[in-house]
Design a protein that fits this description.
207 residues, alpha+beta, seven-stranded antiparallel sheet, five-stranded antiparallel sheet, 35% strand, disordered C terminus
């Protein structure tokens, strides 16, 4: 399940994707831990039970929000994995240049909206920061520096694009079904009304 570190607790997930016990994953170098509580729903991007996760450091992006500085970047995989409630992530970082009261965020780029989104966490003051995330993506640990136009961190958007597509698909299917029922009922009403036959000339009474 955790292929680049150590795992404490068995990864047991039922058919609904509900984790059956507490799980803690730790990277080999000890700079990253993930805590997932018993009862958490863990699903992949196709909404099937999640069977494996991995986290690895990646190169920081070159295009970042104005007023922020990247400390570390990670690829949380598989991309699009979902957690309800959110899971706890604790990251160690070099405190050089980062004050103890600095605002730390995990930032990810939302390709659907074309915007950066931020998850505000807790600066523990000991060279670690803790965050709660609800889905996997490429996350960047950032701190806010001096800027004339700083970006204010916002809460993570928990509505997953796939869930939105599912809602749209269900509504569309309901509209199509309702239209089909109306058309079928109209056809039945037309067939039940038989046109009156005009009597033939031979059937008319003669006077």
């Amino acid at each position: 399940m955790w292929d680049n570190g150590e795992l404490y607790g068995d990864w047991i997930v039922n058919s609904l994707g509900i984790l059956q016990n507490d799980v803690i994953g730790s990277s080999f170098d000890g700079t990253m831990t993930i805590s997932i509580a018993n009862g958490t729903k863990v699903l992949d991007s196709t909404l099937f039970p999640l069977t494996q996760i991995s986290v690895e450091p990646v190169e920081p992006p070159s295009d970042i929000p104005t007023g922020y500085h990247v400390i570390r970047s990670f690829n949380f995989a598989p991309d699009g994995a979902q957690f309800a409630p959110g899971i706890t992530v604790t990251i160690s970082f070099d405190t050089s240049g980062v004050t103890g009261d600095a605002t730390l965020v995990l930032a990810f780029y939302n390709e659907t909206d074309g915007e950066w989104e931020f998850v505000e966490g807790t600066n523990n003051g000991d060279g670690t920061a803790t965050f709660a995330i609800t889905h996997f993506s490429v996350y960047n640990l950032m701190y806010q520096g001096d800027s004339s136009d700083p970006i204010v961190p916002v809460q993570e958007n928990t509505s997953h694009p796939k869930n939105q597509l599912i809602v749209i698909a269900v509504v569309a299917a309901a509209v199509v079904l309702a239209t089909a029922i109306i058309i079928l009922q109209m056809k039945r009403n037309r067939s039940s009304v038989q046109p009156r036959k005009r009597p033939s000339k031979s059937a008319k009474r003669r006077y």
